[in-house]
Amino acid sequence: MWTRDEYVYYGFLLAVTVAGLGMLTLTFG
Fold it and tell me: What are the TM regions of this chain, as residue ranges (predicted)?
């Protein structure tokens, strides 16, 4: 069972990762 803090942490991590990949795609794609 996940706690709310874990949801916030992993959600933030996922958002940063997706944003980073998006920036790379825009830059090099």
Answer: 7-28
Report DSSP state, residue 3. Answer: -
CA distances from 2 to 22, 23, 29 (A): 28, 30, 36
Name the token pair of 28: 């090099």
Q: What percent of the chain has pLDDT over 90?
A: 90
d(CA 21, CA 9): 18
The residue segments making up the domain with residue 10 are: 1-29
Would the pTM of this model clear 0.70, i.e. be above it? no
